[in-house]
# Entry
Amino acid sequence: MLDVRLAATLVVISVALGVLVLALWFKGRRWDEYVVGFIAVFGISLLVGVLVTNAIAAYPALSVETIFPVP
# Structure
């Protein structure tokens, strides 16, 4: 089961957090550092968001049955 609304919300929040971190801490750097920084912040915040929704909130954005069929 994949909740598209929750997954889209987590992606939007991760993009916003990535842009915010770049705007605050990556001033005057080269473009490749911006790309690597954005991908790192985006990936970490998306992973944390998925883990929080799965573990704490008990409302999974992505469950194992979505990827692998569980008999």
